[in-house]
Specification:
Chain lengths: 456, 456
């Protein structure tokens, strides 16, 4: 592990952590992420406090809570006090007791109060990622007064590009003003004269992080105010937090679609035991469900013994159903996530997937039929006297299985959403398993219909 | 289709498109997206030009090029001239000739020049999504001069929050200044005194859009300057463009992982033929590859005939391999995309996946063994006199197949990246197919080893 640090020292002649501390905070984070929390704490302890705060403030720093835990208490308190409120909350969410309790007691009263308030919001809520360091001014101020105020508080605010104008008495949110409009305004004009005409876009503290991300991205905002039911601004969620959020939820969705519980940490930093836990659960559930295929095949054992040739196509038919299902699921998960399709659209989707599945199944059925014809005629394999009926069985089964796969795969995200789950919990392996069991039953039912009296 | 418009009219008493035009541009876009391009053009034509420009400027508007094509030429030119340079480029990328040529000729010389320059960058590059409407000032100006300049040009710039300071003579990029630092600075101080100490983060016009997104998100920037090899600022990429980019590439990756070619348009707006094309290709390729399972089974036909009981577990064993492969692939695609894992780390990953796969396989093997024991003892099914050997075969095969699945699934993204492909082109169905064929061979090899002399 120390190699990385050495490497950095070599790259920057003069060496040592003193050199590392001159890099950009985001680059320092990259180096610290390659170290153990203990070693990273040691390096951070060598930094000037302002630099250490800048580094700790970046959400990209893994194990920030653990690093804080390894710092001398005095130093830890100094750094924590300097953090932005949203990052501080983040770190305290991850801190273990007793370190957590002893540190919280040593924060100054203001910081502790805002921390306790932010910690009270549920972990996936907009309230939990908001910061309280925003700029607000009373609605009876002028442009000049507002600018003077911003100059004074600039260094302690996460963003000053959105300014929130409050009712002079009730302190409720009246308008939002952007800094670019503000500096272009007449200094003596009232602040409200440079505000946007429309009521500002706001979000409730209990709304999801994803909703905050969606609104910021839809309306191209730099920040969105988090507003209580009484109309008071509790904090703001900024665009950079939202980017982190979008990337993180993209990763979680991708992992879940692959059939893994979302990892909390990067792949190489996830412990072996943790990795097994995240994967074994789903793998076992899928395995237990897939056991139904063994039961289905036991049920059709007589048919299998009579026509062993039917077994040759089982993997081919089953996997085609799973593949078409996985295609449909991935399309619908994203369409639902982006709001392109709503719950009520399920029947529109079903009406599209039915002909799509039929045609895709027909295409595969045709290829399958060609294969059996070719192999039979070229003498690669002898499917017996009823080879044409077998080809027909395989093709018809493919149409049925692929259609079922498309339908099941497209409806699953709707069903999950209807039941109150995240549609993104539908995974490719889950759909495949669902379709496998049914696929076998469809195959044998088709075989019984076409082949009874000849092969069966 | 007109229903939606009617619905909007009802919701907003007073009715008509006049009412719709009072909504926020992003909300207008949502309504227009439910209409045909022709109808949307009709509605837009009824808007005041400034409003129509605001709407057309949003990348969320589907079929923008088609809508422009349906507008009266005079109107189309007026709107296009008002667009930001990056959006104009975007729309011209999608416009068909001859509309494209006739419109480009009617733009004013400045707009046409910048458009032609932007159109010359490859479609996936940072240059193709940059805008040329940024603020730059010579390095010998004062803070006050810069502020005065910003006030003058504010309305014609996409962002004024990052100001680029150029060398007074050579016009190359010297520094970047944020508006928040600028307004806090002493008006008479030279502009360079409020600049960041570090050289600004820049990007080449030929770098990928993803790289622009990565840098903006890593360094929490509001915009990144696109700089030529000679050090001149060609344009900037802003944070809102990057959010759209991240969301779009997340969708493409999710669709590809599901085994679909990325759709260009939302699910419900993709035509039936287009949908079939995007899905049939991969489905057919996978089907052809999966045919190897039929060949493998033909090869082991003698064994199958002797021990039909072995066929019962084929779907179970194959799907477990596919599932563990899909887990590993989804983990590694994201880890590579986020830069958590690099190409050179492949052996670290292999060294982790080997024991992970062995343990996961052992867990499933144990469950499988229990199932056969239980079914045999409870009399649900009779696996014959050699049932213990069969249980052993199934368990051993599961260990082998799951280990192979984890290894193949985790190495596939590395191999793709090494070959110059996007690791995200590895799909769950692709991994499953890869593992299916090998899984069958592993199963029969294990069976031959354990059962020869008894069942085989």
């Amino acid at each position: 592990m120390d190699d990385t640090l050495l490497h950095i020292d070599e790259a920057l002649p003069g060496g040592g952590t003193a050199r590392l501390s001159d890099e950009r905070p985001a680059d320092i984070v990259e180096v610290l992420n390659t170290l153990s929390a203990e070693k990273a704490a040691e390096v951070m302890d060598g930094f000037a406090p302002e630099r250490a705060i800048e580094v700790l403030d970046l959400p990209g720093l893994d194990d920030a809570a653990e690093i804080v835990g390894h710092l001398p208490t005095e130093k830890a308190v100094t750094l924590l006090q300097g953090l932005s409120a949203d990052r501080l909350t983040d770190i305290f969410h991850d801190l273990e007791t007793p370190a957590r309790d002893s540190l919280i007691d040593r924060l100054d009263a203001d910081t502790r109060d805002s921390l306790n308030r932010l910690l009270s919001y549920p972990e996936q809520s907009a309230g939990s990622i908001m910061t309280v360091e925003f700029v607000s001014v009373p609605g009876n101020w002028t442009v000049q007064q507002t600018l003077d105020h911003i100059r004074k508080v600039e260094s302690t605010r996460e963003t000053v590009y959105s300014i929130y104008v409050l009712h002079p008495v009730r302190k409720t949110l009246q308008q939002a003003v952007t800094l670019r409009r503000l500096i272009s305004g007449d200094p003596d004009a009232p602040i409200l004269s440079v505000a946007a005409r429309r009521t500002p876009i706001t979000i409730s503290p209990l709304a999801s992080r994803e909703e905050a991300a969606r609104l910021i991205s839809k309306y191209d905002l730099l920040a969105i105010p988090v507003v209580s039911r009484t109309g008071h601004v509790l904090g703001i969620v900024t665009v950079d937090d939202v980017i982190d959020e979008i990337v993180k939820s993209g990763t979680e969705d991708a992992q879940r679609f692959g059939g893994v519980e979302a990892l909390q940490e990067p792949y190489l930093r996830t412990g072996f035991g943790e990795m097994i836990r995240k994967r074994a659960g789903w793998l076992s559930v899928l395995f237990l469900s897939e056991m139904l295929t063994a039961s289905a095949m036991q049920y059709f054992e007589t048919e299998l013994e009579k026509a062993i040739v039917l077994t040759l196509f089982i993997p081919l038919i089953m996997s085609s159903g799973g593949n078409s299902g996985s295609q449909a699921t991935s399309l619908l998960i994203r369409a639902l996530a982006l709001g392109e399709v709503r719950l009520g659209d399920w029947w529109r989707v079903a009406l599209r997937e039915l002909p799509t599945g039929l045609l895709l199944g027909a295409i595969l059925g045709l290829i399958g039929m060609c294969r059996i014809f070719l192999w039979q005629h070229l003498g690669f394999y002898n499917y017996g006297p009823h080879w044409m009926l077998i080809a027909l069985t395989v093709s018809a089964a493919l149409v049925g299985v692929v259609t079922f796969g498309s339908m099941a795969g497209s409806m699953l995200p709707f069903i999950l959403q209807r039941l109150g789950f995240d549609p993104a919990s539908a995974s490719a392996p889950f759909v495949a398993t669902l379709v496998d069991v049914t696929g076998l039953v469809i195959y044998f039912a088709v075989a019984a219909t076409i082949l009874t009296g000849t092969l069966l």
